[in-house]
Amino acid sequence: MEHFRDILNRPPPTEMPNITANEGPLLNIYVNPPSKAEIERALKQLKNGKAAGPDGIPLEALKVDPKTTKAMLYPGK
Protein backbone atom coordinates (compact mmCIF):
# COMPACT_ATOMS: atom_id res chain seq x y z
CA MET A 1 0.00 0.00 0.00
CA GLU A 2 2.84 2.38 0.81
CA HIS A 3 4.48 1.71 -2.55
CA PHE A 4 1.36 2.62 -4.52
CA ARG A 5 0.58 5.59 -2.32
CA ASP A 6 4.04 7.00 -3.11
CA ILE A 7 3.84 6.18 -6.83
CA LEU A 8 0.30 7.45 -7.40
CA ASN A 9 0.56 10.61 -5.30
CA ARG A 10 3.67 12.18 -6.77
CA PRO A 11 3.61 15.57 -8.55
CA PRO A 12 3.22 15.70 -12.34
CA PRO A 13 6.43 15.84 -14.41
CA THR A 14 7.83 19.28 -15.17
CA GLU A 15 8.72 18.36 -18.78
CA MET A 16 6.56 16.36 -21.15
CA PRO A 17 8.29 13.38 -22.79
CA ASN A 18 9.23 13.67 -26.46
CA ILE A 19 7.68 10.55 -28.02
CA THR A 20 8.02 10.19 -31.78
CA ALA A 21 6.18 7.85 -34.12
CA ASN A 22 7.82 4.56 -34.97
CA GLU A 23 9.60 4.79 -38.32
CA GLY A 24 10.06 1.01 -38.60
CA PRO A 25 7.79 -1.52 -40.30
CA LEU A 26 4.18 -1.69 -39.19
CA LEU A 27 2.82 -4.75 -37.47
CA ASN A 28 1.10 -7.16 -39.82
CA ILE A 29 -2.32 -7.37 -38.17
CA TYR A 30 -5.25 -8.91 -40.04
CA VAL A 31 -8.29 -6.74 -39.29
CA ASN A 32 -10.80 -8.10 -41.81
CA PRO A 33 -13.70 -10.21 -40.54
CA PRO A 34 -13.31 -13.99 -40.79
CA SER A 35 -14.61 -15.79 -43.86
CA LYS A 36 -17.33 -18.44 -43.65
CA ALA A 37 -14.67 -21.10 -44.30
CA GLU A 38 -12.58 -19.84 -41.36
CA ILE A 39 -15.65 -19.90 -39.10
CA GLU A 40 -16.46 -23.46 -40.19
CA ARG A 41 -12.85 -24.56 -39.56
CA ALA A 42 -12.90 -22.98 -36.10
CA LEU A 43 -16.20 -24.70 -35.23
CA LYS A 44 -14.73 -28.09 -36.17
CA GLN A 45 -11.70 -27.47 -33.93
CA LEU A 46 -13.78 -26.71 -30.84
CA LYS A 47 -13.71 -29.45 -28.21
CA ASN A 48 -16.95 -30.71 -26.67
CA GLY A 49 -17.51 -30.22 -22.96
CA LYS A 50 -15.95 -26.74 -22.90
CA ALA A 51 -17.74 -23.40 -22.64
CA ALA A 52 -17.50 -21.17 -25.71
CA GLY A 53 -16.76 -18.11 -23.66
CA PRO A 54 -18.28 -15.72 -21.14
CA ASP A 55 -21.72 -16.21 -22.73
CA GLY A 56 -21.82 -19.77 -21.33
CA ILE A 57 -23.21 -21.32 -24.54
CA PRO A 58 -22.11 -24.97 -24.69
CA LEU A 59 -20.08 -25.82 -27.78
CA GLU A 60 -22.40 -28.69 -28.52
CA ALA A 61 -25.18 -26.14 -29.11
CA LEU A 62 -23.02 -24.29 -31.63
CA LYS A 63 -22.06 -27.50 -33.40
CA VAL A 64 -25.63 -28.85 -33.77
CA ASP A 65 -26.33 -26.68 -36.81
CA PRO A 66 -23.08 -25.34 -38.28
CA LYS A 67 -24.93 -23.59 -41.11
CA THR A 68 -26.97 -21.45 -38.70
CA THR A 69 -23.94 -20.83 -36.48
CA LYS A 70 -21.93 -19.64 -39.50
CA ALA A 71 -24.78 -17.33 -40.50
CA MET A 72 -24.91 -15.85 -36.98
CA LEU A 73 -21.14 -15.37 -36.73
CA TYR A 74 -20.49 -14.14 -40.27
CA PRO A 75 -20.69 -10.33 -40.26
CA GLY A 76 -21.59 -10.13 -43.97
CA LYS A 77 -25.01 -10.53 -45.51
Kindly describe this structure:
The chain is mainly alpha-helical and 77 residues long. It has a domain at 32-77. The chain has helices at 2-8, 36-45, 59-64, 66-73. Helix 2 crosses helix 4 (66-73). The radius of gyration is 23 Å and the shape is elongated. The termini are far apart. The mean pLDDT is 84.
For the sheet with most strands, the description reads: none
Number of strands: 0
Beginning-to-end CA distance, first to last residue: 53 Å
What percent of the residues sit in helical stretches (DSSP H or I)?
A: 40-55%
SS-based class = mainly alpha
DSSP helical segment count:
4
The fraction of residues assigned to DSSP E strands is under 5%
Low-confidence stretches: none
Question: Which H/E pattern describes the elements?
Answer: HHHH
Overall pLDDT metric: 84
Radius of gyration: 23 Å
Based on CA inertia axes, which overall geometry fits? elongated
Brief account:
With 77 residues, this protein is mainly α. The chain has 4 helices and no strands.
Summary keywords:
77 residues, mainly alpha, 40% helix, 0% strand, elongated
List the helices and strands and how they pair.
Layout: H1 2-8, H2 36-45, H3 59-64, H4 66-73
Helix pairs in contact: 2-4
